[in-house]
Amino acid sequence: MTSFASALRIAATTAIVGLATLAAPAFAQFPDRPVKIVVPFAPGGGTDLIARTLGHGMSKELGQSVIIENKPGAGTLIGTDFVAKSAPDGYTLVIATLAHAVNPSMLAKLPYNNATAFAPVSLIGKGPNVLVVRNESPFKSVKDILDAAKAGKRLSYASQGNGTSAHLAGELFTNLSKVELLHIPYRGAGPAMTDLLGGQVDMFFGTAAAVASFVDQGKLRALAVTSPEPSPAFKGIPTVASTVPGYSVESWYGFFVPAGTPVPVVAKLNAAVKKAAQSPEFVQKVAHEGLVITASDPAEFDRYVKAEEARWQKVVKENNIKAD
């Protein structure tokens, strides 16, 4: 019996070693085909631009093409769910934003579970949103908006979808300042920007990445940043909190892959993201957008997202913010 048991242990050990030997080359060869980044927003917005710039840098590090695929809709759920249900092989990532941490508390039911459907890759960076109006707007400050709203003027603000940073920024603004603003959700920052510039909506709490170039071109006027402190990228622009005490919203960008993606593959993707995010090309691209680059490890990103989920769950509940 002892000899038989020993033989079984030897056979099992040999099998495990054999499987590990077979798996090691597979991980070593990753990636051997193009990698896809899913952007859960329409083309042309800030998240899309961040993903495309990073994708270019990641392709150099990975030695493979990085394809950007836009899957907008349902407050980022369509694109995010697509990745949640993709093969856990490292070839499909989603670029996530604040909406990823907010959706669980805003929606009664999600098609996936944040805690079990994804593996974190890296927090890319975070920065302020910017309250902007078109250059022809009569509003020159946050106080002007508050005065007009309190006087009964019906004002509207755009967002790139329910549950996004622009939506939460607007809802927190209305709740803390005790004014009414009409929320107009769009399928991405691009369409929202089009209607803002066309005068169909009054304002936009857009990500810095989405609005910076329009501010530089004089097409939009920046009234305030949503971060608790002024942003070096928007010199001379006050914070919303200077007029609405206690106000604070920051946008962030990070990558997830489906849960179950092998750790060595996640490590390779993390290394590629870090290199791309810290490259001169990316740093220069986002320098005027207020993005503070973190390029974190997966564990750091996981802790950050969980803290964001807890923070926004409290805000959503206290302010009765709804997805629809």
Short key terms for the protein model shown above:
324 residues, alpha/beta, D-Maltodextrin-Binding Protein, domain 2
Descriptive report:
- With 324 residues, this protein is of the alpha/beta class.
- The protein has 2 domains: 33-126 and 250-319, 3-Layer(aba) Sandwich (D-Maltodextrin-Binding Protein, domain 2); 128-242, 3-Layer(aba) Sandwich (D-Maltodextrin-Binding Protein, domain 2), CATH 3.40.190.10.
- It has helices at residues 2-29, 46-62, 77-84, 98-106, 114-117, 142-150, 165-177, 189-198, 208-216, 263-277, 280-286, 298-319, and strands at residues 35-39, 66-70, 92-96, 118-134, 155-159, 181-185, 203-207, 220-225, 250-258, 292-293.
- Strands 1, 2, 3, 4, 5, 6, 7, 8, 9 and 10 form a 10-stranded mixed β-sheet that branches.
- Helix 2 (46-62) packs across helix 9, helix 2 runs antiparallel to helix 11 and helix 4 (98-106) packs across helix 12 (298-319).
- The radius of gyration is 22 Å and the shape is globular.
- The protein starts with a helix and ends in a 5-residue tail after the last helix.
